[in-house]
Amino acid sequence: MNLSPRTKLRLLGILPLIFFIAQFVHYLRINELGHLLWMCNVGNLLLAMGLFLEKPLLTRLSGNPSQVQTSFYGKTAAPAALLLVVLSGLVPFLSWKSSSASELLRNALRSLAVGAGVVVLALVLGARQPTSLILLFAAGFSADMNLRAVLRKAANGKLAGAGGYLAHVGVGIMIAGIVVSGVYSKSSRVTLVREVPTRVGDKTLTFLRIVPGTATRKQAMEVRVRAASGKTGYAYPKMYTNTKTGQLMVNPAIRRTAIFDDYLSPQQYDPGQPEKIGREVQLTKGTTTNVEGTGFTFRDFNADRSAMFEGKKQVLVLTDLTITPPDGSKHDVTLRYVFHMDGAEAEAPEVEIPGHPGGVMQVLAVSPSDGAVALRLRGISKDPAAEHQAATRESLSLEVTRKPLISLVWAGFYVLMAGGILALVKRAREARRAGVVEEAAATGSKPAAAPVPAGLPVTARSQLAR
Length: 466
What we know:
- The chain is of the alpha+beta class.
- The protein folds into 3 domains: about 5-185 and about 410-425, no CATH class; about 185-270 and about 395-405, no CATH class; about 275-390, no CATH class.
- It contains 11 helices and 20 strands.
- It has a 4-stranded antiparallel β-sheet with strand order 1-20-9-8, with helices on one face. It has a 4-stranded antiparallel β-sheet with strand order 2-3-4-5, with no helix packed on it. The chain has a 4-stranded antiparallel β-sheet with strand order 11-18-17-16, with no helix packed on it.
- Helix 6 crosses helix 7 (about 130-155).
- The protein is elongated, with a radius of gyration of 37 Å.
Protein backbone atom coordinates (compact mmCIF):
# COMPACT_ATOMS: atom_id res chain seq x y z
CA MET A 1 0.00 0.00 0.00
CA ASN A 2 1.43 3.32 -1.09
CA LEU A 3 0.47 5.88 1.57
CA SER A 4 1.36 9.55 1.51
CA PRO A 5 3.51 10.95 4.34
CA ARG A 6 0.49 12.96 5.59
CA THR A 7 -1.65 9.80 5.80
CA LYS A 8 1.12 7.96 7.63
CA LEU A 9 1.30 10.81 10.13
CA ARG A 10 -2.45 10.59 10.74
CA LEU A 11 -2.26 6.82 11.23
CA LEU A 12 0.22 7.37 14.05
CA GLY A 13 -2.77 8.69 16.01
CA ILE A 14 -3.96 5.09 16.37
CA LEU A 15 -1.22 4.36 18.93
CA PRO A 16 -2.19 6.97 21.58
CA LEU A 17 -5.87 6.21 20.90
CA ILE A 18 -5.32 2.50 21.61
CA PHE A 19 -3.56 3.39 24.87
CA PHE A 20 -6.42 5.68 25.92
CA ILE A 21 -9.04 3.00 25.13
CA ALA A 22 -7.05 0.41 27.10
CA GLN A 23 -6.92 2.74 30.10
CA PHE A 24 -10.64 3.45 29.76
CA VAL A 25 -11.47 -0.29 29.84
CA HIS A 26 -9.15 -0.84 32.79
CA TYR A 27 -10.66 1.94 34.91
CA LEU A 28 -14.17 0.90 33.89
CA ARG A 29 -13.58 -2.59 35.25
CA ILE A 30 -12.36 -1.33 38.61
CA ASN A 31 -15.02 1.41 38.77
CA GLU A 32 -12.42 4.22 38.79
CA LEU A 33 -13.24 6.14 35.60
CA GLY A 34 -12.23 9.37 37.32
CA HIS A 35 -8.58 8.40 36.89
CA LEU A 36 -8.93 9.06 33.15
CA LEU A 37 -8.54 12.71 34.09
CA TRP A 38 -4.83 12.19 34.75
CA MET A 39 -2.71 14.05 32.25
CA CYS A 40 -1.04 10.88 30.92
CA ASN A 41 -4.47 9.70 29.73
CA VAL A 42 -5.90 13.02 28.57
CA GLY A 43 -2.66 13.79 26.75
CA ASN A 44 -2.95 10.61 24.70
CA LEU A 45 -6.52 11.46 23.71
CA LEU A 46 -5.52 14.98 22.64
CA LEU A 47 -2.52 13.66 20.72
CA ALA A 48 -4.72 11.19 18.83
CA MET A 49 -7.24 13.94 18.00
CA GLY A 50 -4.48 16.26 16.82
CA LEU A 51 -3.01 13.64 14.49
CA PHE A 52 -6.36 12.46 13.11
CA LEU A 53 -7.90 15.89 12.58
CA GLU A 54 -4.94 17.42 10.78
CA LYS A 55 -5.88 20.67 9.03
CA PRO A 56 -6.35 19.41 5.41
CA LEU A 57 -8.81 16.83 6.75
CA LEU A 58 -10.75 19.51 8.61
CA THR A 59 -11.02 21.70 5.51
CA ARG A 60 -11.97 18.69 3.40
CA LEU A 61 -14.85 17.88 5.78
CA SER A 62 -16.18 21.37 5.15
CA GLY A 63 -16.47 20.52 1.44
CA ASN A 64 -13.81 23.01 0.32
CA PRO A 65 -10.28 21.62 0.76
CA SER A 66 -7.78 24.46 1.08
CA GLN A 67 -4.68 25.70 2.80
CA VAL A 68 -5.06 27.53 6.09
CA GLN A 69 -3.36 30.50 7.69
CA THR A 70 -1.16 30.37 10.77
CA SER A 71 -4.06 31.70 12.90
CA PHE A 72 -5.86 28.38 12.25
CA TYR A 73 -3.51 26.61 14.63
CA GLY A 74 -4.13 29.13 17.40
CA LYS A 75 -7.89 28.70 17.06
CA THR A 76 -7.73 24.91 17.15
CA ALA A 77 -5.03 24.59 19.84
CA ALA A 78 -6.79 26.89 22.34
CA PRO A 79 -9.74 24.51 23.00
CA ALA A 80 -7.36 21.55 23.40
CA ALA A 81 -5.21 23.50 25.87
CA LEU A 82 -8.31 24.60 27.79
CA LEU A 83 -9.55 21.01 28.00
CA LEU A 84 -6.13 19.86 29.22
CA VAL A 85 -5.83 22.36 32.08
CA VAL A 86 -9.47 22.02 33.16
CA LEU A 87 -9.27 18.23 33.37
CA SER A 88 -5.93 18.35 35.19
CA GLY A 89 -7.48 20.84 37.63
CA LEU A 90 -10.29 18.36 38.38
CA VAL A 91 -7.91 15.52 39.30
CA PRO A 92 -7.64 16.52 43.01
CA PHE A 93 -11.43 16.08 43.30
CA LEU A 94 -10.87 12.33 42.91
CA SER A 95 -9.68 12.19 46.56
CA TRP A 96 -12.91 13.95 47.69
CA LYS A 97 -15.38 11.50 46.16
CA SER A 98 -17.34 11.17 49.40
CA SER A 99 -17.68 14.93 49.86
CA SER A 100 -20.89 16.82 49.09
CA ALA A 101 -21.16 19.34 46.27
CA SER A 102 -21.14 22.28 48.68
CA GLU A 103 -18.03 20.93 50.37
CA LEU A 104 -16.28 20.45 47.04
CA LEU A 105 -17.10 24.03 46.08
CA ARG A 106 -15.82 25.30 49.41
CA ASN A 107 -12.57 23.39 48.99
CA ALA A 108 -12.15 24.82 45.50
CA LEU A 109 -12.84 28.46 46.44
CA ARG A 110 -9.18 29.28 47.02
CA SER A 111 -8.14 27.89 43.65
CA LEU A 112 -10.97 29.77 41.95
CA ALA A 113 -9.73 32.92 43.66
CA VAL A 114 -6.18 32.24 42.46
CA GLY A 115 -7.44 31.85 38.88
CA ALA A 116 -9.38 35.11 39.18
CA GLY A 117 -6.30 36.81 40.62
CA VAL A 118 -4.24 35.72 37.64
CA VAL A 119 -6.85 37.22 35.30
CA VAL A 120 -6.92 40.51 37.26
CA LEU A 121 -3.12 40.73 37.13
CA ALA A 122 -3.20 40.07 33.38
CA LEU A 123 -5.80 42.82 32.90
CA VAL A 124 -3.69 45.28 34.88
CA LEU A 125 -0.70 44.46 32.67
CA GLY A 126 -2.74 45.14 29.54
CA ALA A 127 -4.13 41.73 28.53
CA ARG A 128 -7.50 41.99 26.73
CA GLN A 129 -7.83 38.94 24.49
CA PRO A 130 -10.83 36.93 25.85
CA THR A 131 -9.53 33.45 24.96
CA SER A 132 -6.19 34.11 26.62
CA LEU A 133 -7.88 35.37 29.79
CA ILE A 134 -10.01 32.20 29.97
CA LEU A 135 -6.91 30.04 29.54
CA LEU A 136 -5.03 32.01 32.18
CA PHE A 137 -7.93 31.56 34.64
CA ALA A 138 -8.01 27.81 33.99
CA ALA A 139 -4.22 27.53 34.27
CA GLY A 140 -4.17 29.40 37.60
CA PHE A 141 -7.05 27.29 38.95
CA SER A 142 -5.45 24.01 37.85
CA ALA A 143 -1.98 24.85 39.15
CA ASP A 144 -3.29 25.87 42.58
CA MET A 145 -5.63 22.86 42.93
CA ASN A 146 -2.78 20.47 42.25
CA LEU A 147 -0.30 22.45 44.35
CA ARG A 148 -2.63 22.10 47.35
CA ALA A 149 -2.77 18.35 46.73
CA VAL A 150 1.05 18.25 46.70
CA LEU A 151 1.21 20.16 50.00
CA ARG A 152 -1.36 17.82 51.58
CA LYS A 153 0.67 14.80 50.52
CA ALA A 154 3.86 16.38 51.87
CA ALA A 155 2.18 17.23 55.20
CA ASN A 156 1.10 13.59 55.57
CA GLY A 157 4.59 12.31 54.79
CA LYS A 158 3.56 10.98 51.36
CA LEU A 159 5.41 13.38 49.07
CA ALA A 160 6.57 10.46 46.92
CA GLY A 161 2.94 9.92 45.95
CA ALA A 162 2.50 13.51 44.77
CA GLY A 163 4.33 13.13 41.45
CA GLY A 164 1.17 13.24 39.32
CA TYR A 165 -0.16 16.32 41.09
CA LEU A 166 3.22 18.07 40.80
CA ALA A 167 3.33 17.30 37.07
CA HIS A 168 -0.10 18.92 36.70
CA VAL A 169 1.20 22.03 38.50
CA GLY A 170 3.92 22.20 35.84
CA VAL A 171 1.33 21.86 33.07
CA GLY A 172 -0.66 24.80 34.45
CA ILE A 173 2.46 26.98 34.65
CA MET A 174 3.53 25.97 31.13
CA ILE A 175 0.12 26.76 29.64
CA ALA A 176 0.16 30.19 31.30
CA GLY A 177 3.63 30.87 29.87
CA ILE A 178 2.66 29.67 26.39
CA VAL A 179 -0.47 31.85 26.38
CA VAL A 180 1.28 35.01 27.55
CA SER A 181 4.38 34.61 25.37
CA GLY A 182 2.38 33.59 22.29
CA VAL A 183 -0.64 35.90 22.39
CA TYR A 184 1.09 39.00 23.73
CA SER A 185 4.40 38.84 21.86
CA LYS A 186 5.26 41.90 19.78
CA SER A 187 7.20 41.87 16.51
CA SER A 188 8.59 44.62 14.34
CA ARG A 189 10.78 44.61 11.27
CA VAL A 190 13.60 47.10 11.09
CA THR A 191 16.42 47.79 8.63
CA LEU A 192 19.77 48.56 10.27
CA VAL A 193 22.20 50.54 8.15
CA ARG A 194 25.74 49.63 9.07
CA GLU A 195 27.20 51.75 11.86
CA VAL A 196 23.93 53.72 12.22
CA PRO A 197 22.23 53.30 15.66
CA THR A 198 18.50 52.61 15.33
CA ARG A 199 15.96 52.81 18.14
CA VAL A 200 13.76 49.70 18.49
CA GLY A 201 11.45 49.77 21.50
CA ASP A 202 13.49 50.45 24.62
CA LYS A 203 16.78 49.40 22.99
CA THR A 204 19.15 50.84 20.41
CA LEU A 205 20.48 48.41 17.80
CA THR A 206 23.55 48.97 15.63
CA PHE A 207 24.65 46.63 12.85
CA LEU A 208 28.44 46.49 13.03
CA ARG A 209 29.78 43.83 10.69
CA ILE A 210 29.59 40.31 9.27
CA VAL A 211 31.48 37.69 11.27
CA PRO A 212 32.78 35.18 8.70
CA GLY A 213 32.06 31.51 9.27
CA THR A 214 34.71 28.94 10.10
CA ALA A 215 34.85 25.14 10.15
CA THR A 216 33.18 25.14 13.57
CA ARG A 217 31.08 28.32 13.45
CA LYS A 218 28.39 29.61 11.10
CA GLN A 219 28.49 33.08 9.57
CA ALA A 220 26.85 35.63 11.87
CA MET A 221 25.90 39.30 11.94
CA GLU A 222 27.29 41.34 14.82
CA VAL A 223 24.68 43.68 16.32
CA ARG A 224 25.35 45.97 19.27
CA VAL A 225 22.42 46.16 21.69
CA ARG A 226 22.26 49.13 24.05
CA ALA A 227 19.56 49.25 26.72
CA ALA A 228 17.92 52.45 27.96
CA SER A 229 20.04 52.16 31.13
CA GLY A 230 23.20 52.41 29.01
CA LYS A 231 24.17 48.76 29.41
CA THR A 232 25.66 47.43 26.19
CA GLY A 233 25.79 43.90 24.85
CA TYR A 234 26.27 42.13 21.54
CA ALA A 235 24.01 39.76 19.64
CA TYR A 236 25.06 37.41 16.85
CA PRO A 237 22.10 36.27 14.74
CA LYS A 238 23.23 33.76 12.14
CA MET A 239 22.54 33.98 8.42
CA TYR A 240 24.35 31.52 6.16
CA THR A 241 23.94 29.21 3.17
CA ASN A 242 23.58 25.48 3.76
CA THR A 243 26.45 23.90 1.85
CA LYS A 244 24.45 20.71 1.20
CA THR A 245 21.12 22.11 0.02
CA GLY A 246 22.11 25.64 -1.04
CA GLN A 247 19.26 27.07 1.07
CA LEU A 248 19.58 30.26 3.06
CA MET A 249 19.48 29.39 6.78
CA VAL A 250 18.59 31.75 9.63
CA ASN A 251 19.12 31.30 13.37
CA PRO A 252 17.89 34.13 15.64
CA ALA A 253 19.91 35.52 18.49
CA ILE A 254 18.04 35.34 21.82
CA ARG A 255 18.59 37.77 24.69
CA ARG A 256 16.93 36.44 27.83
CA THR A 257 15.75 38.23 30.95
CA ALA A 258 13.48 37.12 33.81
CA ILE A 259 10.50 39.03 32.36
CA PHE A 260 10.85 38.69 28.60
CA ASP A 261 13.04 37.31 25.82
CA ASP A 262 14.08 39.27 22.74
CA TYR A 263 14.53 37.40 19.46
CA LEU A 264 16.65 39.04 16.73
CA SER A 265 16.04 37.15 13.50
CA PRO A 266 17.84 38.27 10.30
CA GLN A 267 15.55 38.59 7.26
CA GLN A 268 17.69 40.12 4.52
CA TYR A 269 21.25 41.34 4.03
CA ASP A 270 22.05 44.06 1.46
CA PRO A 271 25.76 44.57 0.73
CA GLY A 272 24.99 47.99 -0.76
CA GLN A 273 25.99 49.31 -4.18
CA PRO A 274 27.61 52.44 -5.60
CA GLU A 275 25.70 55.02 -7.57
CA LYS A 276 24.70 53.81 -11.03
CA ILE A 277 23.78 55.88 -14.06
CA GLY A 278 22.18 54.02 -16.91
CA ARG A 279 20.01 50.97 -17.32
CA GLU A 280 21.12 47.36 -17.47
CA VAL A 281 19.84 45.08 -20.23
CA GLN A 282 20.52 41.37 -20.70
CA LEU A 283 20.56 39.98 -24.24
CA THR A 284 20.45 36.37 -25.37
CA LYS A 285 22.19 35.20 -28.52
CA GLY A 286 19.93 35.28 -31.58
CA THR A 287 17.21 37.43 -29.98
CA THR A 288 16.19 41.09 -30.23
CA THR A 289 15.30 43.27 -27.24
CA ASN A 290 13.46 46.57 -27.69
CA VAL A 291 14.56 49.44 -25.44
CA GLU A 292 12.85 52.82 -25.79
CA GLY A 293 11.91 52.06 -29.42
CA THR A 294 15.41 50.87 -30.38
CA GLY A 295 16.08 47.21 -31.20
CA PHE A 296 19.22 45.48 -29.88
CA THR A 297 19.94 42.18 -31.65
CA PHE A 298 22.73 40.04 -30.19
CA ARG A 299 24.32 38.11 -33.07
CA ASP A 300 27.39 36.32 -31.74
CA PHE A 301 30.52 36.18 -29.57
CA ASN A 302 34.11 36.17 -30.80
CA ALA A 303 36.94 35.38 -28.39
CA ASP A 304 40.47 36.56 -29.17
CA ARG A 305 43.09 34.69 -27.07
CA SER A 306 46.12 35.98 -28.97
CA ALA A 307 47.23 38.03 -25.95
CA MET A 308 47.68 34.82 -23.96
CA PHE A 309 50.31 33.63 -26.43
CA GLU A 310 52.22 36.82 -25.66
CA GLY A 311 52.24 35.95 -21.94
CA LYS A 312 49.38 38.24 -21.01
CA LYS A 313 46.66 36.77 -18.77
CA GLN A 314 43.71 38.26 -20.59
CA VAL A 315 41.05 37.34 -23.12
CA LEU A 316 39.38 39.75 -25.53
CA VAL A 317 35.70 39.02 -26.11
CA LEU A 318 34.03 40.72 -29.06
CA THR A 319 30.24 41.05 -28.95
CA ASP A 320 28.53 41.57 -32.32
CA LEU A 321 25.25 43.52 -32.20
CA THR A 322 22.81 44.96 -34.73
CA ILE A 323 21.18 48.22 -33.59
CA THR A 324 17.84 49.26 -35.13
CA PRO A 325 16.91 52.86 -34.17
CA PRO A 326 13.32 54.15 -34.41
CA ASP A 327 13.95 55.29 -38.02
CA GLY A 328 14.30 51.62 -39.10
CA SER A 329 17.93 51.80 -40.18
CA LYS A 330 20.26 48.94 -39.15
CA HIS A 331 23.76 49.38 -37.78
CA ASP A 332 26.25 46.60 -36.98
CA VAL A 333 28.31 47.34 -33.87
CA THR A 334 31.07 45.36 -32.15
CA LEU A 335 31.67 45.88 -28.42
CA ARG A 336 34.96 45.01 -26.74
CA TYR A 337 35.29 43.31 -23.35
CA VAL A 338 38.72 42.44 -21.95
CA PHE A 339 38.63 39.81 -19.22
CA HIS A 340 41.73 39.67 -16.95
CA MET A 341 42.50 36.21 -15.61
CA ASP A 342 44.64 37.63 -12.80
CA GLY A 343 41.57 39.12 -11.10
CA ALA A 344 42.02 42.67 -12.31
CA GLU A 345 38.92 44.70 -13.23
CA ALA A 346 37.59 44.01 -16.72
CA GLU A 347 37.93 46.64 -19.42
CA ALA A 348 34.86 47.61 -21.48
CA PRO A 349 35.02 50.90 -23.42
CA GLU A 350 31.80 52.76 -24.16
CA VAL A 351 30.48 52.89 -27.73
CA GLU A 352 27.98 55.37 -29.15
CA ILE A 353 24.45 54.06 -29.73
CA PRO A 354 23.45 54.70 -33.39
CA GLY A 355 20.41 56.94 -33.72
CA HIS A 356 20.78 58.34 -30.19
CA PRO A 357 23.14 61.33 -30.03
CA GLY A 358 24.87 61.31 -26.64
CA GLY A 359 23.75 57.76 -25.92
CA VAL A 360 26.47 55.19 -25.14
CA MET A 361 26.62 51.49 -24.32
CA GLN A 362 29.19 49.10 -22.86
CA VAL A 363 29.47 45.44 -21.87
CA LEU A 364 29.07 44.66 -18.17
CA ALA A 365 29.45 40.88 -18.29
CA VAL A 366 29.50 37.99 -20.74
CA SER A 367 28.52 34.35 -20.39
CA PRO A 368 29.57 32.37 -23.48
CA SER A 369 28.25 29.11 -21.99
CA ASP A 370 24.76 30.62 -21.60
CA GLY A 371 24.98 32.67 -24.80
CA ALA A 372 24.16 35.86 -22.90
CA VAL A 373 25.62 39.34 -22.50
CA ALA A 374 24.74 42.15 -20.09
CA LEU A 375 24.90 45.76 -21.32
CA ARG A 376 24.68 49.13 -19.66
CA LEU A 377 22.92 51.82 -21.70
CA ARG A 378 23.19 55.55 -20.94
CA GLY A 379 21.44 58.48 -22.58
CA ILE A 380 18.78 56.40 -24.31
CA SER A 381 15.84 56.98 -21.96
CA LYS A 382 13.49 59.92 -22.55
CA ASP A 383 13.53 60.62 -18.83
CA PRO A 384 17.15 60.95 -17.57
CA ALA A 385 15.97 60.37 -13.99
CA ALA A 386 14.89 56.83 -14.93
CA GLU A 387 18.55 55.95 -15.57
CA HIS A 388 19.78 57.08 -12.18
CA GLN A 389 20.13 54.61 -9.30
CA ALA A 390 21.26 56.17 -6.06
CA ALA A 391 23.98 54.53 -4.01
CA THR A 392 22.83 52.28 -1.17
CA ARG A 393 24.66 51.45 2.04
CA GLU A 394 25.28 48.04 3.53
CA SER A 395 22.32 47.09 5.71
CA LEU A 396 20.70 44.25 7.62
CA SER A 397 16.94 43.70 8.00
CA LEU A 398 15.91 42.17 11.31
CA GLU A 399 12.64 40.95 12.75
CA VAL A 400 12.72 41.86 16.43
CA THR A 401 10.27 39.88 18.57
CA ARG A 402 9.67 40.30 22.30
CA LYS A 403 8.04 37.35 24.09
CA PRO A 404 6.96 38.15 27.67
CA LEU A 405 7.27 35.59 30.48
CA ILE A 406 8.72 32.85 28.30
CA SER A 407 10.55 31.81 31.48
CA LEU A 408 7.21 30.44 32.76
CA VAL A 409 7.30 27.81 30.04
CA TRP A 410 10.69 26.59 31.22
CA ALA A 411 9.73 26.80 34.88
CA GLY A 412 6.62 24.73 34.19
CA PHE A 413 8.67 22.23 32.23
CA TYR A 414 11.09 21.74 35.13
CA VAL A 415 8.21 21.31 37.59
CA LEU A 416 6.61 18.82 35.19
CA MET A 417 9.87 16.85 34.99
CA ALA A 418 10.20 16.87 38.79
CA GLY A 419 6.69 15.43 39.09
CA GLY A 420 7.52 12.78 36.51
CA ILE A 421 10.67 11.78 38.42
CA LEU A 422 8.70 11.50 41.67
CA ALA A 423 6.12 9.31 39.96
CA LEU A 424 8.84 7.07 38.47
CA VAL A 425 10.55 6.70 41.88
CA LYS A 426 7.24 5.71 43.48
CA ARG A 427 6.48 3.18 40.75
CA ALA A 428 9.99 1.72 41.09
CA ARG A 429 9.55 1.26 44.85
CA GLU A 430 6.12 -0.31 44.41
CA ALA A 431 7.49 -2.70 41.79
CA ARG A 432 10.36 -3.63 44.11
CA ARG A 433 7.99 -4.34 47.01
CA ALA A 434 5.70 -6.36 44.73
CA GLY A 435 8.68 -8.43 43.63
CA VAL A 436 9.65 -9.15 47.23
CA VAL A 437 6.12 -10.30 48.07
CA GLU A 438 5.93 -12.54 45.00
CA GLU A 439 9.31 -14.05 45.80
CA ALA A 440 8.24 -14.70 49.40
CA ALA A 441 5.01 -16.33 48.21
CA ALA A 442 6.92 -18.56 45.80
CA THR A 443 9.39 -19.76 48.46
CA GLY A 444 6.79 -20.07 51.23
CA SER A 445 8.68 -17.68 53.52
CA LYS A 446 7.32 -14.57 55.13
CA PRO A 447 8.43 -11.11 54.06
CA ALA A 448 10.77 -9.34 56.47
CA ALA A 449 8.98 -7.41 59.18
CA ALA A 450 8.89 -3.67 58.90
CA PRO A 451 11.44 -1.90 61.10
CA VAL A 452 10.04 -0.85 64.49
CA PRO A 453 10.29 2.89 65.16
CA ALA A 454 12.44 3.73 68.16
CA GLY A 455 10.87 5.30 71.21
CA LEU A 456 7.60 3.30 71.24
CA PRO A 457 6.44 1.50 74.38
CA VAL A 458 7.46 -2.14 74.71
CA THR A 459 3.90 -3.42 74.20
CA ALA A 460 3.51 -1.33 71.07
CA ARG A 461 6.90 -2.52 69.82
CA SER A 462 5.99 -6.12 70.38
CA GLN A 463 2.66 -5.69 68.58
CA LEU A 464 4.36 -4.05 65.62
CA ALA A 465 6.93 -6.82 65.49
CA ARG A 466 4.30 -9.55 65.29
